[in-house]
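As a warm-up, study this chain.
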Amino acid sequence: MQFSEILGLSHIKSYLTTSVDRGRIPHAQLFVGANGSGTLPMAIAYAQYILCQNVAGENTGGNPSCNIKFDHLAHPDLHFAYPVATNDKVKKHPTANHFAEEWRTFVKENPYGSIFDWHLLLGIEKKQGQIGVDEAMEVVKKLSLKSYEGGYKVMLIWMADKLNIAASNKLLKLIEEPPEKTVFILITEKEEHIIQTIRSRCQSLHFPALGELVIKEAIQKLGGLSDSEAIKIAHQANGDYRKALQVLQHDNSNDPFEDWFIQWVRTAFRAKGNKSAVNELIQWSESIATSGRETQKKFLGYCLDFFRQAMLLNYGAKDLVFLEPKTSGFKLDKFAPFVHGANIMEISTEIQDAIYHIERNGNAKIILTDLSIKLTRLLHKKSAPISNGDTNT
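Now compare it with the structure written out below.
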């Protein structure tokens, strides 16, 4: 993976290569960034720079055979751990070793992909992938061996927030005091979901969302777009290159989410004092509950974005609004006045609580029904009047 293939983030590239050139490589690092920001390709390029002893800030000039191995993600001193679950291929005790071929395909074809994309590739979209104690034991075993080429060993843990407690505790001592010339790179979108004892042992590096200009230039290189079309897609992407590619390719993976959301809020509006609409909300909750937990979480994240975009539009911040609903008869500017300062915090809290409970295997039907009933009340909550600063008593 060449640094030149990674979008933007020149300051991070410079920092990482300089630390290697000066022999100051932290033994445990935590790359924190939102989906589509480039944490995974950056981590792989960084590992290549370390292992192949490349020079001049790019992955060239070092060991040629080492760089060729990285082109195929087949370097013996580069190890991966990532969330997995049982599927038709692996019936029990799944680990990263069982899905190495799928992983190489995923990284080559979709380096900016999300964990949802990974689950779809494995056919486990109705499950929650995790990094369990079986994987932790594999990590310990791999890192107990000597380096194949006599230099560094790199363990890259993608979506480290999916480490369960048992696996985290198993790896804690190893991350704190790894063997000589061993580097851990943990990648996460949710730093707070990693246990504090591991976070405190890592040097954190936070990745910003990609700029609109960076995304615009990247998608224009793919061909066939005018400046105005590219800017529009880059704005909709909101810093997520993967989302930009989905919009560019007319990927409809989010279209069901829009349908689900609009059906939800329309029914919630009618449900106040309307028994039949309440029954519709219950039926809606039952329908969404039949999807996988990862789909449910992704949908609720989409709902959070939708409500926040509506509030921004309501308060006149049009330049920050990237959402463009395609459903006939639904206008964001008509919906926006119902999302305001008096209810947005409660709506956000309730959705985040629902995500939390779904992650912990709560009953999705009950969680979504409860959320729907609360939404009925919150959408009808009146906006607080804007103070004119009058201090007369």
